[in-house]
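Reopening this one. Same input as before:
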Amino acid sequence: MVPAELAHFPKGTELGLNTYIDRALAGGWGKGRPPSYMQGPWKPGRAGQGYQLPLTPASCTAPAIAAANAFCVKTYGKSFDKISESQREEFLVACGRQGGVRKRAVRAGFFATV
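Same output, byte for byte:
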């Protein structure tokens, strides 16, 4: 997720980033508790409006992870956690393109805000 940079900065898992994200998704923010606005209307927004979905962050994450793993299995024959570093880089670059993997998981706007 966040690779180490030279000898100066440890990777994200060494800093507990994965635990932080898991706890954030399991807590109030992930469940959409206030101050999240969870009432419609759910019309497509403009790019500058940020996150505009009737889903909580946690309910977006599970389908996004499933879609990412399905894409990796179809493309590389392995789930994301089993592919090589270069394949992960290739996959993440593809996610950054419009119409890539991310649109099949949830609306693209969610990934632009995380």
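So the earlier flakiness isn't reproducible anymore. For the record, Residues 28 and 69 are 26 Å apart (CA to CA).
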